[in-house]
């Protein structure tokens, strides 16, 4: 994989099982109540990806999420610009046969 791994932690979901801190203690610590705290900015270097992915997959409440270029938390890329006039796409009586209007 060439994409950089980036994660985020939703602390509102965390139930404090501590599995993440066990698998990847460099990236997850536990606060005084046992709830997870993300250590660092969420960017995961290649060499730590497996440990963090294991923490992500083992979290029983799915509080750890991977953020990809097209994944949750980030907007998808805008559609490519077209030179077509949107008015040409309208379904009107003139192109009724093309669109298969039913009345
Ligand atoms: S594994 Fe999930 S529920 Fe457990 S401490 Fe980590 S984030 Fe919280």
From TrEMBL:
Annotated region (Disordered), positions in chain: 67-103
Q: Which SUPFAM superfamilies match?
A: 4Fe-4S ferredoxins
Q: Which InterPro entries match?
A: Fe-S_cluster_ET
**Extent of Pro residues compositional bias:** 74-83
GO molecular function per UniProt: 3 iron, 4 sulfur cluster binding; metal ion binding
**Which UniProt keywords are present, listed alphabetically?**
3Fe-4S, Electron transport, Iron, Iron-sulfur, Metal-binding, Transport
Q: Does the keyword Methyltransferase apply?
A: no
Q: Which prosthetic group or cofactor does it need?
A: [3Fe-4S] cluster
Respond yes or no to whether keyword Protease is given for this record. no
Q: Which PANTHER family match?
A: FERREDOXIN (PTHR36923:SF3)
What protein does this entry describe? Ferredoxin
């Amino acid at each position: 994989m060439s994409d950089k791994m980036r994660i985020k932690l939703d602390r509102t979901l965390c139930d404090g099982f501590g599995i993440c801190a066990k698998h990847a203690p460099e990236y997850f610590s536990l606060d005084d109540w046992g709830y997870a705290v993300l250590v660092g900015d969420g960017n995961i270097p290649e060499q730590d990806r497996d440990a963090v992915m294991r923490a992500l997959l083992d979290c029983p409440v799915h509080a750890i999420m991977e953020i990809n270029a097209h994944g949750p938390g980030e907007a998808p890329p805008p559609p490519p610009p077209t030179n077509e006039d949107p008015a040409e796409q309208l379904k009107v009586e003139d192109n009724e046969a093309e669109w298969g209007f039913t009345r």
